[in-house]
UniProtKB/TrEMBL annotation:
Protein's UniProt keywords contain ATP-binding: no
Function: E2-like enzyme which forms an intermediate with UFM1 via a thioester linkage.
Transmembrane segments: none
Name this polypeptide is given: Ubiquitin-fold modifier-conjugating enzyme 1
CDD domains per the UniProt record, alphabetical: UBCc_UFC1
Pfam families (UniProt xref): UFC1
Family: Belongs to the ubiquitin-conjugating enzyme family. UFC1 subfamily.
Database matches in InterPro entries: UBQ-conjugating_enzyme/RWD, Ufc1
Keywords assigned by UniProt, alphabetized: Ubl conjugation pathway
Active site per UniProt: 118
Record organism: Ranatra chinensis
Amino acid sequence: MAGVDDSSKKTLSAIPLLKTKAGPRDKELWPQRLKEEYQALIQYVHHNKKTDNDWFRLESNKEGTRWFGKCWFIYDLLKYEFDVEFDIAVTFPTTAPEIALPELDGKTAKMYRGGKICLSDHFKPLWARNVPKFGIAHAMALGLGPWLAVEVPDLIQKGVVVYKEKVV
């Protein structure tokens, strides 16, 4: 794939490509697309656990139109955890999900209102070239994952994000 580094290619190889081009308004085909989305996510999470790279949990509402969960980033052996959420647009899969980390809203320039992470330069053109083959797992792997890897260490170093100890 042109413009994709070796690490991303390896990650992509662990995520099945999707076949059904359907969004939430497509009552006939959306259940099939949603099934493919879940299968791809399950396979990607399984791969991440196997390669000791487990970094997110996601679930959706019954309709598969609203997704939420947790993502985390390990920095200096400390786990920084964030809520993650996004809606599936009616134009999905033509339009990529706009992934949001609400608690980081306003803390970095690489974010839009509501905590939506900026993916326009690199990810959105790649998504557009791969409709309908890319899905939610791809958005996590090629969108949120790299964004966390760049932004979180910077936010920690600047003191904008501070470690919160979990009270058990």
